[in-house]
Amino acid sequence: xxxxxxxxxxxxxxxxxxxxxxxxxxxxxxxxxxxxxxxxxxxxxxxxxxxxxxxxxxxxxxxxxxxxxxxxxxxxxxxxxxxxxxxxxxxxxxxxxxxxxxxxxxxxxxxxxxxxxxxxxxxxxxxxxxxxxxxxxxxxxxxxxxxxxxxxxxxxxxxxxxx
Length: 163
Fold this sequence. Notes:
The chain has 163 residues and is an all-alpha fold. The chain has one domain. 72% of the residues lie in helices and 0% in strands. It is elongated.
């Protein structure tokens, strides 16, 4: 127990070294996310998704891995997509993919584990998003459709756009 202060100091030093090691990657990821949010690319892409048909699933998957949204912000976005008229399949692809990977996650994983690990997680996130989207699309024929899941009709419009 006499060594506890030294052990605590070593732990704090190790955490500080790790933080300084990943700091550049974190800054790059946060900067990229700030650009996406400032230029409102996420809003433009969301509007474009409703026009893609079956190709909306890979588009939503790519949007999910490129978006800076965390898990808690993805659900309101998916709800607004459904309200705006996006089919459930691409919404599910986005719902699955977005919390798994983001620009900040990729840069942090690259710094902490290596670029190869970050690419592996990216590939897995894309495959999971595509699987969720296409499985949801295939299950439409078995009754897993918006009109069967939601008891009342979804209101039309987009409550995220001002005026």
